[in-house]
Amino acid sequence: MSVVYSPVTYVDVTLSCDTSALTANDVAADTQVVTDALPFYGQPGILQSLTLLDGDDQTAAAVDIYLLSSNVSLGTENAAISITDANAASILGVVSIASGDWKDLIASKLANINNIGMIVKPAANSRDLYVAMVVAGTPTYTAAGQKLRLGFI
User: Fold this and answer.
1) 3-state secondary structure of 105
2) Contact (CB, 8 A) for 133 and 27
3) What local confidence, expressed as pLDDT, does residue 7 receive?
4) Tell me: the pLDDT tens digits for 38-59?
5) Rounded to an integer, what is the distance from CA 26 to the centroid of its chain?
6) 133 in Cβ contact with 65 (< 8 Å)
């Protein structure tokens, strides 16, 4: 029997969100680890797809998902983004979900962004990446209602 290596990886992350009412440009979920996001230590990969499930079924609002190479803070949750210049150097890119990208599943909402093609790279001796979420609307999330799926090639 032969083993075939597949470079495709799906990684699920339940975002730990602030549970208070948010306002536009607030950090909803500060930086969180995406454990073993990439197959090789310190080597780049490509973020190809991103799916966000809003299990809280909040009003569709634009959301930015930040990808980072290290565990640095975007700012305080439930407050406007306030990352320092030094920490901003760890941002690998941002995937924006527009309010029109959401699909209503009645008890939840789902947004899917495909063909991203963003090159990402973890720290030298790591396979981990980091994510954070900033909202443009005024949702109120539960602590574990936002589920993120990242597809890497």
Assistant:
1) coil
2) yes
3) 77
4) 999 999 999 999 999 999 999 8
5) 15
6) yes
